[in-house]
Amino acid sequence: MAHRPYTCSGSAGLWIACLMLGGCMTGAVRAADWSGFAAVDLRAFPDTPAFAGQSGMRVVPSVALQPEFRHEWNEGADRLTAIAFGRVDAADSNRSHVDVRELNWLHQGAGWSLRAGVGKVFWGVAESRHLVDIVNQTDLVENIDGEEKLGQPMLNLNIPTAYGNFTFLYLPYFRERTFPAPRARLRFSLPVDQDAPQFASGGRWHPDWAVRWSRTFGNWDVGIAHFMGMGREPRLVPRFDAGPIPTALTPVYDLIHQTSLDAQASLGNWLLKLEAITRSGQGRRFAAVVAGFEYTYYGLFGSSADLGLLAEYHYDGRDRSAPPTPFNNDLYLGARWSLNDAHDSQVLAGVTTDLETGATMFNLSASRRLGEKWKVELESRMFQSIPPTDILTGYRRDDYVQVRVARFF
Fold it and tell me: What beta strand segments (E) does 45-151 contain?
């Protein structure tokens, strides 16, 4: 395997992270706050795989562990956070991996704060696609919904003022996206060789920068950001090992500039959402938008349960020289049911439909706590009418249902 930071490849970054954590723990164990979870996942595929060489396992088990450590001192002005994540998967060698999600020191000054180390930054308000969320790289082997992110080395300066909150980010090291192994399910039609990436900058050590301003105006929360550096979405270039037929895809990471806007308004039962970007550096400059709403019925039928109805529209104007996306002209409709009970029971169901091709993806997620330490989760995705030209055509026989049992500590 090629070198990837903070993975099970035994990189120097992981050793340094462990030494830093060990050093900070010395003399502070009694004050430490330990938490995290361990989980067992069973992912079942009702259909046989679409491609030769893919694993024929119809039920794929995996185990995951996420320990978390936090410690505060100096009357709360300083805090150390360490979060590691690891998974062992029975069918996907790339999904068996270790990552340092967070390992950072946060200092709260007078009117400012600074976070240094490996961390996470989330931007965005939409439900079905986090268009403006660009700081952390997507951990695609964990989940294809883009929610799971790799830890990102950074310096994060935050300055709250009467004119809004200003965030400045320096990102010295680039993390490549993870992709399923060739024999795994939920891969593209051609496997992506994540061990042979190409970088427009010449390497992973490239200084990326980002700045964001955010402010609340009455019922509106607004954020404007600009990012310049290596784009987290790679172009996927066909590789020809022998003959005229491509055998794999090579991820190519370009230098980009991206300006974004995110806004959310809370108007009674209505929650209005907008994410928009304009990006250069990957073909011609293009714009993309996610806009929609969530309307919530509180106390449904006199009970404590709430029902939220969601609708979001996707537009993406990129050309074929940019990284592929399935969200060029799509509509998302969903419903969120929250029982608001002692078990924190929730269900979210949604469907995304391409308005041009009719390609459809169904999503279902549900969770319920079992006592104070246990939680059971259900996740399912189904893919229908995916055309051969769609980036998701490799998923066409990969409908699945996953059950997770997690123990928190």
Answer: 59-73, 78-89, 97-108, 113-119
Determine the Cα–Cα distance for residues 228 and 239; give it in Å rounded to an integer. 28
Q: How confident is the model at residue 25 (pLDDT cuts 50, 70, 90)?
A: very low
3-state secondary structure of 150: coil
Q: Identity (one letter) of the amino acid at 153?
A: P
Distance from C-alpha of 369 to C-alpha of 64, rounded to nearest angstrom: 18
pLDDT at 31: 66
Gap between the Cα atoms of 214 and 164, Å rounded = 6
Spatial separation of the C-alpha atoms in residues 190 and 294, rounded to whole Å: 37
Length of the chain: 409
Report pLDDT for 341: 96
198-199 vs 248-253, strand pairing mode: parallel
Longest dimension (CA), the chain: 67
Q: What are 95-138's pLDDT values in tens digits?
A: 999 999 999 999 999 999 999 999 999 999 999 999 999 999 99
Beta bridge partners of 113: 108, 158
